[in-house]
Give the backbone structure.
Amino acid sequence: MNWKSKALLIGAAGGLVAGLAAAALFIRSAEEDRGKAPRLVAPNVQTSDLIKVLVAAVGVVRMAAGLGK
């Protein structure tokens, strides 16, 4: 396996772990906010919050791209 394949594999695994961790934290936060009452619908997420997360993710990708220089 060459270094490019290894980099892609490590990046994919890292993205999977980071995504799962983010989802778990989101679920925990939503459950804490609504208390003990179970709710079957997903919590409302503001568009501005999603844009903030997207901008932060683009910043992380840009930093990772700069590591090879």
User: Anything to note?
Assistant: Helices lie at 3-34, 47-65. The CA atoms of residues 31 and 39 lie 9 Å apart. The chain has one domain: 3-68.
